[in-house]
Amino acid sequence: MEIQGKPSKETLEKWNKDPNNWIWGILYYNKEDKRLLPPKRIPWTGWTVNFANRNSVILFISIMLLVILFLKFIIDIK
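Above: the chain's sequence. Below: its structure in token form.
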């Protein structure tokens, strides 16, 4: 059952287990899923990026840029 547009737990599990939502088995791509960081195929291993969600991709790119800038800053100091 969905409440106020939020998918039910069963729907979320169905999306996660559906092989059609995984590109090459590792990249999650589901236009219906609005979560920024859905769980990986094996949930206890953490979260992944939903590449069908623009905000999720922006978050991923932002984090990667911050890491690169941080590493560049650390390398330039030494």
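The beta strands are 22-23, 27-28.
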